[in-house]
Structure formats: structure tokens, C-alpha cells
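Side project, low priority. Logging it here so it doesn't get lost.
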Amino acid sequence: MPSPATPPAVTLRPIGYVRTAYRRLADTPIQTSRNSHEPGRLVVLDAYAAGLDGLDGFDYAHLLCFLDQAWQADDHGRRAFTGDRLRPVPFLLQHTGQRVGVFATRAPVRPNYLALSLVRVVAVHGNLVDFTGVDLLDGTPVLDIKPFEPHLDVPGYVPGSGWLDQVRGGWYQQSNAAANPMVRPGRRGLQAAGLLDPDDPTDPTGGDE
């Protein structure tokens, strides 16, 4: 088994891509919160369309994306991340020139060119997700979608937290599922998630529920 310090290369397959009005890096808004009302569309590949079932019950979702055009502009990721590239000047600190570690920023140029975009889900129909809150270039590949739920995503959230109480959290809010005290999934949970074969007596997870 490879050492954790030298993990194997990882191959990721996009599940879709976004359609937006932006074609140039320099013109693209830097955060969805700075451009919260502009509409965009996520096109999910037909093979994954069934995975959108239930997403329309959420007000917000995270899009995990590969910033392919930043990657291309950065010599297809061949430039080493050393020196000042590990400490860029964030967009919002350009007026000061202050450098910050790349992992303490949301800068698009980073070792794996990944982005996390929090969008508002407007409608889901077939393999399409209409949303508002655009900070991505047109055609940006989407690697995954994860719904936003205040109980789980806002540290210290408790009922009575103003507008957050009105944010729809889909099935997490059915029967108060988000408040379930479960800490670990156990073998049965992994089986239900499709990770383990219930008829296989071996347990690669190393324990019983």
C-alpha cells in the first residue's frame, strides 16, 4: 500500500458541467454571494440524472468543480507549486498586496484546481438544475453536488437563528433527521449506502456495528 505521504494519482470523472454567461477568467465574479441573483444552469450527464432525485427539496447546494480553464491557463498544471505560488495575493487583498497561504484562500490557482460553489437551487427538471449565484466560467466541469443543510453546515446552528430557520434542507429536515445523534455509520449503514455487499461475510471496514 502506498505511503499516505505519496498517495496514488486520482482520476475523477465529471458528472456534468455548468452553463453561464462568462467566457473570460478576468470577468467572472469571485464569489456566488457577490453575484447571488444571476441565473446559471447545471447540465448533468444522463447517466447520473437519477442522482438528482430529492435535490429540489433543498434551497442551496454545493457544486464541486474542476477549474479547467484556470488549469489550462496555468500551463495545464505543469508549473510547480513552490515559493510565492504557495502564498498568493488573494483577489480581495490586491489593494494591500498581502500574501496568504493558498489553503487559507479560495484562489482558483491551487494544486488540484478545485472549486466549491454554493448556489441557490431554483428548479430541477430531468437532468437540468437551474440555479442562481454564478461564480463559474461557462462549461466548467462539475465533479459532484452536495446539498446544504444549516444543522450540518453552519457551526453552532440552533433553531431560532433567523433566516437560516427558513432554509429548506430536504430530507434532512424530515422527521428531524439532521438532529439524529448518529456519529458513525456502522456496517449496516455502509451496506445501505451501497458500499458493502450484505451477503459478503468479510468486513473490510474492520468491525461490527
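Brief comment: The chain has a mean pLDDT of 92.
Revisit when time allows.
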